[in-house]
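User: Can you write out an input/output pair for a complex, sequences first and structure second?

Assistant: Here is one pair. Inputs:
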Amino acid sequence: GESVGLHLPTLSVQEGDNSIINCAYSNSASDYFIWYKQESGKGPQFIIDIRSNMDKRQGQRVTVLLNKTVKHLSLQIAATQPGDSAVYFCAEVQGAQKLVFGQGTRLTINP
Amino acid sequence: AAGVIQSPRHLIKEKRETATLKCYPIPRHDTVYWYQQGPGQDPQFLISFYEKMQSDKGSIPDRFSAQQFSDYHSELNMSSLELGDSALYFCASSGPGLAGVSYNEQFFGPGTRLTVL
């Protein structure tokens, strides 16, 4: 079936640098995407979302970009901090609001 | 602020035993979702309920069943446990109301870690 996936399983960045986490999706009919952050031992936490009628959305220190032509999502985290260390998932909303998650990317911050 | 409560937080069972996981949604939330996350894997949707009725079904084994009660809490019943059932089980809740045009954000609980020996 169609699914959402991520390019890289791990990403290591220097504290203070910007982080970019990527995600590819295969369902061209997808309408709504969400990025989640999952810290060790905790449930996924909503970060930011974007609808298919947008190509960019900004939050506090985070930006999500959507490229529908190549079915690609990215999450940009500005001035990465130690507290940003976590696994990041993109997810697609399907059906009656169920979430289809992609493979996570583990972000580690080097001091 | 109140969050989703799951119990127990940790559970150890033997193969072929049964397990019951409980989820208490955020007050006034009427929709619950169950997800299974294997080691190093992404969460996989199992099943969801809105107003005590099943609203969607995913990759839930026939050995598993779930329901939502009148107080909106939900239970996931797992029978004939297998080693491969070892995973984190998350419950999420959203609401109120069944989402239509807009999306109702799902709030996740801390999860139940099930270990099958």
